Structure to design on (800 residues):
């Protein structure tokens, strides 16, 4: 349905551009104006989210936990961290574990599970090396090897994480730790947490009403290798961070993404992650939402977790890597049929809530697939196909003017984005020259090009594949700390 | 958190309100409607689009200076006549009165503003009495009147080069034509036609000679053209068209006789086709001008065809 809608809108606009150029131009102008208002609104939310992130930076969350009144003891909590790993090497994994080791939180309250895929042979050496280095650092350190080809499973991250969570469950049972006391964090292999992450998570877990009916979403930033990444990849990932910051302000639409945390009790109750779907990070939210009859939410954590910018050795390969990553994210559109079918089976969720959430899901994916196409490719069509009569009408002259205004407005808001991005950068590594600072400002001029290449096409691709039942396999994103 | 969500809610509804309140104005303006504040209704308007070469001219609409410079779209104009004046420093101003119609755009997009003092630059170095431009090769050819020699340079007047001395005619040549491969030049007056090699390296070997030298003839040479091979010349004369080889003492071949003693002709060297006018008596007894063509390419010769037959007139 999302694919049909997206293609339908695009095709209708193309046909209208040829047959009814004035009507098409009016629609494009309406969309342009909508996009200007929307950009203004979302940029304001971004500024608010950034302000909140800035205010809570360097806050000693553990001290805040300690200050909580009796009955909300952080000491009873355990943090279970699962790292589903596929081909990531020690250069990626070691800093992720070191970041947890270096957190301002008692390590005897942390259990780490390194979840490897058995089918990837080099994993064994990596697991042994990490075990040797980190086993004694935490209350528990487990290594799981997810077997390949289990019945009902696809080669997805969710299947690996589920296998690891079941291993962790055995460990908790053996230690006599109840699931209610365990907060689970499922992190991408390259996730490096901030020092205060577990304190922040504990605080929110303890202070949120019905804490088991919530996921806890930190702000993902891509700072691990941001200074070394090429401009295009950097811009795309900064945009992704901004999207998450904006989403964190829209709680009624907020869905888990990438690295996030939740109650271990909940993950057991909902029977873990889906083992045959790619978008495990968002589906797990919907499973919980349906399990709790709509009384489930995502609590934003205004603390960052840092990941890698996905890039490769040259521009074209970087575009390919970014394209595949975005297409995998856009494959989240598979949530729509999943959610719709579960909504039909569940009579305990209020009807209006079902309609609103389904609409949000559909609207977000359709908008993702068409916005860049409309702004960059369809907007000039009425002028090109409109014929002589169109060029004699005022709208024939006003359409390019308004489209140009939209572009200028986007560039104007880019100034805000540039300023915000500067405040979120990690310190410049010594081996990176100073003028990279200038490059990182000037590179924003290629935003229209990025929009054209990676704006809508990955989403349109994913939706078309879903509509044609050409299902995707999980494609692990290529990660590089530095191109050699 | 509640207060943030409240702020967000306010922002959201404010954005929705802005969208729905202003969209009718944006759309109506784009479609050429103007909101009449007095009567609170939309009136159909028109626009003027002005584009100048060069851009950046000040625009005066009915004597009032607008904020924007060209290219500019002046929107929401009520139907009627408007005085437009364009001013750009160092350029002649442009002005006109244009009519704006409801729901229509009036494009003024072919305006060139000319310099008050054009940059006049002398291109030649010596005295000359004739020149022509080779657009394809971006060259200018000169006849130096003192030396009676042919020179060439690039269009900027640089890379000045003498090509050849020309034969002295009894009266000055009227026409000069360089062959397609730029190896030879023919020049003629009414009684004389000479050829000079201007590329010493070519197969003809750097020479000057008369092809026609008939001081007393009344069969005047009206025009002459190079064939694409650079060796044959099509000579339009009073009462006939000949073709001749460009060599001394060459014998001309008659292509056609002409009723019109002062015909005009055009030669398309790309297709080796000669177009010419001639008078022909039609079946109704009247004489009409007809346009004829003769194809002289090696593949079509001697096919002759009439591209436009009037009153079934044919040319023998």
């Amino acid at each position: 349905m999302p694919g049909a809608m997206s293609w339908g809108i695009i095709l209708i606009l193309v046909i209208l551009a040829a047959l009814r150029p004035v009507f098409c131009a009016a629609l494009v102008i309406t969309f342009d104006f909508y996009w200007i208002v929307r950009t203004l609104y979302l940029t304001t939310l971004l500024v608010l989210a950034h302000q909140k992130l800035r205010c809570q930076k360097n806050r000693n969350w553990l001290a805040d936990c300690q200050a909580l009144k009796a009955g909300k003891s952080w000491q009873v909590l355990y943090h279970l961290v699962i790292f589903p790993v596929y081909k990531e090497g020690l250069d990626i994994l070691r800093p992720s574990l070191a970041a947890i080791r270096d957190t301002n939180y008692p390590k005897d309250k942390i259990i780490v599970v390194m979840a490897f895929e058995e089918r990837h042979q080099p994993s064994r050496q990596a697991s042994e090396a990490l075990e040797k280095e980190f086993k004694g650092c935490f209350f528990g350190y487990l290594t799981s090897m997810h077997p390949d080809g289990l019945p009902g499973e696809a080669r997805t991250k969710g299947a690996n994480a589920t296998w690891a969570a079941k291993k962790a469950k055995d460990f908790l049972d053996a230690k006599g730790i109840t699931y209610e006391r365990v907060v689970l964090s499922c992190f991408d292999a390259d996730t490096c947490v901030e020092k205060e992450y577990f304190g922040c998570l504990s605080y929110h877990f303890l202070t949120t009403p019905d804490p088991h009916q919530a996921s806890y979403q930190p702000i993902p930033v891509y700072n691990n290798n941001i200074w070394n990444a090429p401009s295009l990849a950097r811009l795309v990932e900064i945009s992704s961070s901004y999207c998450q910051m904006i989403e964190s302000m829209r709680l009624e639409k907020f869905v888990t993404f990438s690295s996030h945390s939740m109650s271990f009790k909940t993950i057991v109750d909902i029977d873990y992650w889906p083992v045959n779907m790619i978008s495990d990070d968002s589906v797990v939210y919907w499973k919980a939402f349906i399990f709790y009859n709509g009384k489930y939410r995502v609590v934003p954590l205004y603390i960052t977790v840092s990941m890698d910018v996905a890039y490769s050795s040259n521009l074209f390969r970087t575009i390919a890597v970014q394209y595949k990553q975005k297409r995998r994210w856009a494959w989240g559109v598979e949530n729509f049929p999943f959610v719709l079918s579960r909504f039909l089976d569940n009579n305990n969720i209020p009807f209006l809530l079902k309609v609103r959430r389904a609409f949000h899901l559909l609207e977000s994916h359709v908008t993702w697939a068409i916005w860049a196409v409309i702004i960059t490719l369809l907007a000039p069509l009425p002028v090109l196909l409109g014929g002589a009569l169109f060029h004699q009408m005022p709208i024939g002259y006003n359409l390019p003017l308004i489209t140009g205004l939209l572009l200028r407005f986007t560039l104007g808001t880019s100034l805000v984005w540039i300023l915000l991005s500067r405040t979120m950068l990690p310190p410049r590594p010594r081996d990176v020259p100073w003028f990279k600072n200038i490059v990182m400002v000037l590179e924003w001029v290629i935003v229209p090009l990025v929009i054209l290449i990676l704006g809508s096409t990955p989403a349109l691709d994913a939706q078309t594949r879903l509509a044609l039942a050409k299902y995707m396999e999980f494609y692990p994103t290529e990660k590089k700390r530095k191109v050699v | 958190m509640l207060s943030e969500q409240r702020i967000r809610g306010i922002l959201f509804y404010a954005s929705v309100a802005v969208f729905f309140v202003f969209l009718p104005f944006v759309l109506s303006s784009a479609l050429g409607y103007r909101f009449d504040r007095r009567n609170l209704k939309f009136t159909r308007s028109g626009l003027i689009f002005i584009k100048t070469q060069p851009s950046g001219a000040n625009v005066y609409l009915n004597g009032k200076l607008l904020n924007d410079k060209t290219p500019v779209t002046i929107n929401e104009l009520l139907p009627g006549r408007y005085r437009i004046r364009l001013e750009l420093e160092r350029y002649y101003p442009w002005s006109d009165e244009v009519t704006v119609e409801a729901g229509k755009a009036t494009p003024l997009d072919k305006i060139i503003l000319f310099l008050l003092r054009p940059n006049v630059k002398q291109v030649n170095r010596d005295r000359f009495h004739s020149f022509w431009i080779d657009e394809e090769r971006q060259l200018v050819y000169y006849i130096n009147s003192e030396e009676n020699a042919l020179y060439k340079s690039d269009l900027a007047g640089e890379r000045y080069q003498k090509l050849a001395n020309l034969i002295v005619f009894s009266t000055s040549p009227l026409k000069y034509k360089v062959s397609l491969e730029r190896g030879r030049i023919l020049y003629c007056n009414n009684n004389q036609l000479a050829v000079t090699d201007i590329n010493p390296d070519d197969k003809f070997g750097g020479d000057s000679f008369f092809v026609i030298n008939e001081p007393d003839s009344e069969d005047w040479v009206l025009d002459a053209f190079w064939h694409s091979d650079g060796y044959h010349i099509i000579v339009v004369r009073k009462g006939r068209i000949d073709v001749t080889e460009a060599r001394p003492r060459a014998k001309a071949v008659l292509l056609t006789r002409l009723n019109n003693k002062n015909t005009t002709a055009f030669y398309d060297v790309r297709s080796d086709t000669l177009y010419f006018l001639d008078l022909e008596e039609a079946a109704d007894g009247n004489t009409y001008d007809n346009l004829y063509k003769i194809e002289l390419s090696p593949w079509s010769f001697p096919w002759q065809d009439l591209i436009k037959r009037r009153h079934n007139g044919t040319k023998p």
Observations:
- Residues 428 and 470 of chain A are 43 Å apart (CA to CA).
